Amino acid sequence: MQRTSAPVHVIGGGLAGSEAAWQLAEAGTPVVLHEMRPAARTAAHRTGDFAELVCSNSFRSDDAETNAVGLLHAEMRRAGSLIMRTGDRHKLPAGGALAVDRDGFSRAVTDAIRTHPLIEIQLGEVPELPPPDWGLTIVATGPLTSSSLAQSIRAATGETSLAFFDAIAPIVYRESIDMGIAWFQSRYDKAGPAGTGADYINCPLDRDQYQAFVAGLISAEKAEFHDWEKDTPFFDGCLPIEVMAERGPETLRHGPMKPMGLTNAHQPSVKAYAVVQLRQDNALGTLFNMVGFQTKMKHGEQVRLFRTIPGLEKAEFARLGGLHRNTFLNSPLLLDGTLRLKAQQNIRFAGQITGCEGYVESAAVGLMAARFAAAEAQGEAPVLPPLTTAHGALLAHVTGRLAVSGEKVQDFQPMNVNFGLFPPIGQPVLDEDGRRLRGNEKTQARKRALSARALRDFDGWIAESRRAAA
Fold it and tell me: What are phi and psi of 240, to 5 degrees?
């Protein structure tokens, strides 16, 4: 493949930026990767490594047949994703999910990026959108875009608001959990890609304990907002646990604290009213994060209240929960179909700043932005992934192709990939005898049909992209 003499600049070394840099370099396109850490820190990052996981260590479901996230995993693997390859090499037990050793994962991504011969790394903050003489550029600064760059984006787009809040969950030292009360089990004993079906630590609460816990969440002292933060909304898919509690006393036990599919190993005949789950967070198994327990409570309140959970009475925390301000674009209004900024078309955006939500979705948008930029760098027209694929459905949401997403531009909000974004299967879903399916069987069969179609079409997209680049 002929290489372009001019490099593509990638701003941001998170999951999307790392994936974008890798895809460009693997396509034979030189890359200059800009990362402001460690010289400039954010409210959530701890290291200067690329692709640092600042919230959960889970890439969520790895089921490629009946889960849209697992399908996205499968498509990314077919596209040579660095993020998925590294995640697979550093996976941890997590039931049906793909969870990774966060430190090992980010170090391995960093090593891959640093040793690629076509990737040059420049450390230091890029405080504003680059000028046209930079050439092709991908901005993948993520939800923690610096305030100066965010202001530059506002000035270029005319947008007045680019923010929502996200929160991170606490991490507990495994040795401080009382396993005489807690037990290991995955929900419904489901084994995942690196698991045994007993991958989560479960802490049971009876009705009185649960009700006292919910009351404590609601009354706990919360982190105060700056004046400029007060009108910033939360992303509904990652609400602080105390915000969920405020929505109703039973909300949590139908959400992150649901007891379904779990049997107390110490008291099999006693059904828990609610359960707190903890998932392994590092390869050594010494750290476990509290699943769904992102919070904006003050640290002292977190320690006090979380130690009322049975099994966590003596819990020691490697990290307490926190709150950070995220940034995203009104992408359907501001970006074209290949993620270019309409007001400055040498610039593409990628990752969570585009309005996708989730680690894997962020990396997938980085993958697409890179492939579009690589094609453009070689003088070829970018080939879009079909709408029937997970990548195409996610791109349609981000860029506002309303026939698929049903999204109104003025109501645009961050979203995870899901089967609701896919074009429906045109024909009825039938069983082996040709009879129409009903209920859950129909739902699962429909998902399998959507996934099978997606993988066929994605393979076709990869093949077409290779022919165009040849």
Answer: -55, 145
> What would the pLDDT profile of 76-128 be if each residue is shown by its tens digit?
999 999 999 999 999 999 999 999 999 999 999 999 999 999 999 999 989 89
Q: Which residues contact 428 (CB under 8 A, 6 or more apart)?
A: 436
- Assigned fold of 8-162+328-427+451-469: FAD/NAD(P)-binding domain (3.50.50)
Neighbours of 456 (CB within 10 A): 12
CA–CA separation, 129 vs 106, rounded Å?
A: 26
Residues 390 and 83: their CA atoms lie apart, in Å, by: 16
What's domain 167-325's architecture?
Beta Barrel (2.40)
Edge-first strand order for the sheet with 8-11 is 119-123, 31-35, 8-11, 137-139, 344-349, 340-341
Which tokens hold the place of 276?
Answer: 């707190």
Beta bridge partners of residue 163, listed in sequence order? 327
The Cβ of residue 7 has, within 10 Å, a number of other Cβ atoms equal to 22
- Residue among 54, 50, 53 at smallest CA distance from 11: 50
Report the DSSP beta bridge partners of residue 92.
99
Q: What stretch of H or E contains 375?
A: helix 359-377
Sheet hosting strand 58-61, strand order edge to edge: 58-61, 97-100, 91-92
Domain ranges of the chain: 8-162+328-427+451-469, 167-325
Q: What would the pLDDT profile of 268-316 be if each residue is shown by its tens digit?
A: 999 999 999 999 987 788 889 999 999 989 999 999 999 999 999 999 9
Q: How far apart are CA 142 and CA 167, in angstroms?
A: 15
The whole-angstrom separation of Cα 220 and Cα 304 is 10
Candidates 116, 137, 120, 125; CA nearest to 8 is 137
